[in-house]
Amino acid sequence: MKQVSEGTLLWEPSNERKKNSKINHYIHWLKQHKGLDFQNYHSLWKWSVNEIEAFWSSIWEYFEIKAKDTYQTVLTSHQMPGAKWFPEATLNYTEHIFNKRAFSEQPAIIHTSEIRTTTEVTWQKLYQDTVAMQHTLKNLGINKGDRVVAYVPNIYESVVAFLATASLGAIWSSASPDFGTQSVIDRFQQIEPKVFFTVDGYRYGGKDFDRTEVASTIEASLPTLEATIAIPYLDKEATFQQLPSVTLWKEAIPSQHQDQRLSFEYVSFNDPLWVLFSSGTTGKPKPIVQSQGGILLEHLKALTFHVDLGEDDRFFWFTTTGWMMWNFLISGLLTGSTIILYDGNPGYPTKEKLWKLAEETKMTVLGTSASYITACMKDTFQPKELFNLRYLKNISSTGSPLPPEGFQWCYENVKKDIWIASASGGTDVCTAFILGCPILPVYAGELQCRGLGAKIESFNEQGQPEIENVGELVLTEPFPSMPIYFWNDTNGSRLHDSYFDVFPGIWCHGDYLKITERNTCIIYGRSDATINRGGIRIGTSEIYRAVDHVQEVADSLIVDIPKIDGDSFVPLFVVMKEGYELTTEIEESIKKHIRTHCSPRHVPTGIHQVSDLPKTLNGKKLEIPVKKLLMGKPAEQVVNKGALSNADSLESFVAFAQQLKA
């Protein structure tokens, strides 16, 4: 494979592809209806971020947003935090899913897993099942503002449960069943749910994982629960005897519901749609609340213009219900696309799995992680020689930066005429700030553009924007899918400290970003301490809680070091209790607890004993300085030893960094 470097031009869209793109249609619509003439993407982007009220009101009009009460005000102020969008408007997210499609016999969802065969579900079937589930939730007393939580895989039933919840103006939150028990409890307890969806277990990599006892423990830990709805998934005959009062899925979706209609609870634009959770880096995961209207507008914009989705598309993303990409995938239904769900190991029985799925489902957009692409690259197989991928038009990648070699591998081994879109965003906004565009060229290792309506800049330490230099990714204007608040953060201090304490009034996202002179972007990883394995993020505090179960370990510190191939090196450093040394048995015990309490994906790549961990005077571990140190930065540049309670502890980390260089 001929080597490419960062910035090598790899692909340009044909004139026909540009002409037929959804964003080109929008540009012509703006000219016809608004008298605005944009000659290229960047001029459109500049208008969208400098005239944000005009831009977002055009999105409302272009997508014909249905509202019971329309808006008079687009944006109350430009102050962050505190700005409110379309405050007078009332609407419902689920209504826009089924708008004009409720009785269509075209496929809405294709779902498959390691347990189930591939099945197509029509829009009409999805609508009917959502009606039935809405009826069940109403009978259980679910009203606007109530919380519904789900411990479920990425399966068809999860989509039905979510859409029914949102139709009632209730608030959704989900966690994947591969999460550890305490991780789920830490999330769900905070929002005091009324109804709990669960499965009996799941299959991953050919192995079955029973979760009935875990579900029982979670249920018992949620005192506000009034009902549990159980989905027999691992075992079709599961009875859930461990749960004291349970409704089985077949009872919640009775067969005689075909003639009923969905009703929609119209809520304020800024009322909650769902609660997503941060990775829990500095404590319990933050409950991030996003609005019905903000998500609706942003996902319509991002999926239509930046993923180029329409009714003829079949949209897939490899994800679990514990990652914001699941929410993003479900919103593909807003565009009329068929969405494709897969539950299982993408590398089982071989890494060919997703490419085989692409052929089987006639997939047009394949969304995955950079680590999956680099893993395929290392296996040196050629999907184009094994599978018919003639329908595939786009490969989207997120979770971590896709290296230039990953881009090149796709063009040489998947398809010459394919649009590669690397994207970067986050749970915080449930979208991508920086993403693809079907009318722009693709350069190796670079993200094509900043998203419409997102005024992204790269700030230096003085808070000044720069081009061609790496800085902090910041957002300098309000954005509709920003959190409306954190749950139980009554004075907004937790929200403020999470995003606005670095540059006052400016959203600081926590990514290292370089904006090039041609307005492409390069992400150099997180500037915080989140652990990111295979696109699944988890906070260090969750790792520490798992390690704390190992009695011989006194303290621990973990960091995620990105590698040039898109993978990462994740060392765990442990301080042993007096009288103990790190043995093979203790290492295996640590790994077992991390698998159980977090997930198998977050087992460290190495465990290393140290005498002490560097801490500040108030006892905080120096995760980010250690990360920078192991990435090759000199110690004097990453930490002020005078601010440490134990400056000598850095010596072992300096020595470790030198070993990595060798």
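(ticket continues) Second input and output from the same batch:
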Amino acid sequence: MPKERLYIFDTTLRDGAQTAGIEFSLEDKISIAGLLEQLGVDYIEGGYPGANPVDTEFFEHKRTKRAKFTAFGMTKRAGRSAANDPGIQALLNSRADATCFVAKTWDHQVKTALEIGLDDNLENLRDTVAAAVAAGKEALIDCEHFFDGFKSNPDYALSCVKTALDAGARWVVLCDTNGGTMPSEVRDIVGKVLAVAPGDHLGIHAHDDTGQAVANTLAAIEAGVRQIQGTLNGIGERCGNANLITIIPTLVLKPLFADRFETNIDAARLERLTQISRAFDDRLNRAPQRQAPYVGASAFATKAGIHASALLKDFSSYEHVPPESVGNERAIMVSQQAGKSNLLTALARHDIVLAKDDPRLEKLLATVKEREARGYSYDGADASFAVLAHEVLGTLPSYFTVENYRASVERRHNAQGEEITVTEAVVKIRVAGELLMSVAEGNGPVNALDLAMRKDLGKYSSRIEDLELVDFKVRILDGGTGAVTRVLVESRDGTGERWYTIGVSPNIIDASFEALYESITYKLLKTEAAQGTTEKVA
């Protein structure tokens, strides 16, 4: 019997951006969209073009290769046509493949918030969807406060669903906007919606205010919806949104769902789940939640004792899924064996192939664990992992060595009497026995060091001409006078590839320099691989 298709709609870049303390830059959005493409979601909702400069610029180019690039906005304003509504036109003129419009479906809000008649709201909804379809966009409607609206006036809530579908909407999404609906209520109400709408045109968008967003989403799927909306790591306003990092492996691995449904996320993509979740947290400059289901560091951890000894004999009794199926690893204090399979997978991403019994693998595993204990995190810095792996395995070419460097910051008054800050960096590098010294001024010590390092790299200079520092994030791992600083640097080159390197030190400049050094080293490794000259590990 063929399986039914489920569609994953990610709202991290729009709904997740409403999380307190999170502000996505353009580079953040581009990078996160790349993570979502790796994961294999079907839709990536990128934001609201026209609402702010970042979102507007983000939608000037198509940012996805496979997922449907989706813009978000509101239905047209009352009293004007869709053609004369700037908000609608910003969406329709963007590079988005699909447009998701939020619509009021609770009669109370239509009357009090929009201050229009119920029929006028339906007309706005109908005209908006029709305009999107006419413009060649796939149209989606997010039915705001749908479950509250249904409880208040079920006939009107259902009329909103039917109006959207009749106008040509591909999906009508039922939103638990305040997160207060119970799973049993979700199941019951979705069942009633199916009387006017087919399940393969319905979606669910749950908030987590009662801690039940995942449960409500799964209940909606069981009841009949076929599109699932949520965010990476469950970020979102107030208490967050349905967590796709929890929902996706449940759909793919649990027989209750896996036997009936299929998604675009196969076993190979699912094995990247933990890495993607932690890389996303690194991008947000926050610590991953250790007890997060499936991907947390403690998700498959067992303390020494009766459970640990039993676990060594029968893993399946104490683990609801194999940890490697989601890219995680079991943590047992008496054994490091479990980490090898993950390490082999990570090495394969960089075309490094080792046998599982290769003694160098044990050495690399021990090195990674030791460095992570000091504050390094390679889930979000894959380029640094590649450099470390080549170094430990003895396959890292000696491109250049840094003899010494110096960075200085001076605040002074210029000729006009204005107070300015001048930053200068001096770097001495030895390439093929030749000592090269470069001096550069920059916008801060990290930028100055970056410019100085790349100013003259001898015979390698031409190979890093298109290298560019894109982003720089700092996190303090420990407080106090001996605080450990972690620096994450994002780089890119002319091929469009982006990579991340990491540095850790009590000194922020040392940590930054380490990350910059490894970024250049990775770029040189990359150019050699492109030329087919990188040494392969047999």
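Agent notes: The domain at 4-265 is CATH 3.20.20.70 (TIM Barrel). The longest helix spans residues 508-531. Closing as not reproducible unless the customer responds.
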